[in-house]
UniProtKB/TrEMBL annotation:
InterPro entries found in the cross-reference section: MoCofactor_Util/Proc, XdhC_CoxI, XdhC_Rossmann_dom
Pfam families listed in its UniProt record: XdhC_C, XdhC_CoxI
Superkingdom in the source lineage: Bacteria
Domain XdhC- CoxI, residue spans: 15-84
Protein name in the entry: XdhC family protein
Residue intervals of the XdhC Rossmann domain: 167-309
């Protein structure tokens, strides 16, 4: 999903169950730089409480006032488009990045049962399209949709909603901890595999699941798919190789391992000789892991790995958009 959309759906449902009125916001289009892509969600409650964002903070205050004070819940409209930055004056007023403009769809009567079904699908790691028609504000959940993850025409828009990207880190020492923290900010659901008691003791990183299972067992149980990345950073082949020998056979969008070019060459030879991995499977290994940015410290290496994960994730989106390989299918 895009950013914190799962959180937005869950919060919207909670508000609706409390009997509150909620406006569901969807980014439709941006021109210039933007912190939130088309299809991103936010929700504003009838008293102005907000969950998520559509612009990173530039226009949210105006939207909150319009929704909380402007009577939008009683004016008969169920879905319409709000534009920001159409003029030079508006762009200066809203301080949209790089002279940007922004279009947002506003729905004031989201269907509770439909959003429950959508959130359930996301949490079950299934993908669904949500189609919204402008004429009557009707929304539909569909198993199939356009080639792109977001599409709009004169009658409405369609958004592909899917499970969060997941990252399985093998190793909970200093580098693993740094990488877990960075990955959380990138909206990965992070799990750390650390069977060594001396490194697992005292783990206090909130929002990260810690497992003491052996790496190969955890990889097989993890349900790795195209939205899963596996990164081995223990620097201990007895642990890293166990994860890699299974992960490289699965459809993970990224599999990487810490180590120099020489270490990577020896690792590939080991995996081929002792575990029967094919050349095609070994070619999928990102090693040395991370982008070559001159990183030296554990924190710098974590940033380089995170940057490579972003590049790989973006490539998955581009492939899906061009129909070469859909990374999120039912």
């Amino acid at each position: 999903m895009r950013g914190n959309d799962e959180t937005v759906l869950a919060q919207t449902l909670d508000w609706l169950r409390q009997g509150r009125r909620v406006a569901l916001l969807t980014v439709l289009g941006t021109y210039g730089a933007s912190p939130r892509p088309p299809g991103a969600l936010a929700a504003i409650r009838d008293d102005g409480m907000i969950c998520g964002s559509v612009s990173g903070g530039c226009v949210e205050d105006d939207l909150r006032r319009e929704i909380a004070e402007g009577g939008v819940f009683g004016d008969g409209r169920t879905a319409w488009v709000r534009s920001f930055g159409a003029s030079v004056e508006e762009r200066q007023r809203y301080r949209l990045p790089c002279g940007n403009s922004l279009r947002v769809a506003v729905e004031t009567m989201p269907d509770l049962a439909q959003l429950e079904a959508l959130l359930a699908a996301v949490r079950q790691r299934r993908c669904l399209w949500r189609r919204v028609d402008y004429q009557d504000g009707a929304a539909y959940l569909l198993n199939e949709g356009p080639a792109d993850a977001f599409a709009e025409d004169e009658t409405g828009f369609s958004v592909l909603h899917g499970p969060r990207w997941r990252l399985l880190i093998i190793g909970g020492a200093e580098l693993g901890r740094y990488l877990a923290q960075v990955a959380l900010t990138l909206d990965y659901a992070v799990t750390v595999c650390e069977p060594r008691e001396e490194y697992a003791a005292g783990w206090e990183l909130g929002g990260v699941a810690l497992s003491a299972e052996m790496p190969d067992d955890l990889v097989l149980a993890f349900g790795c798919d195209e939205r899963t990345a596996v990164v081995a950073v223990t620097h201990d082949p007895k642990l890293d190789d166990l994860a890699l020998m299974e992960a490289l056979k699965l459809p993970c969008h990224y599999v990487g391992a810490l180590g120099s070019a020489t270490t990577t060459m020896k690792r590939k030879a080991r995996l081929a000789e002792h575990f029967g991995l094919t050349p095609a499977e070994l070619d999928r290994l990102h090693g040395p892991v991370g982008l070559a940015i001159g990183s030296r410290t554990p924190a710098e290496i974590a940033v380089s790995i995170a940057a490579d994960l972003i590049a790989s994730r973006s490539a998955c989106h581009r492939e899906g958009a061009h129909g070469e390989e859909r990374s999120c299918r039912t």
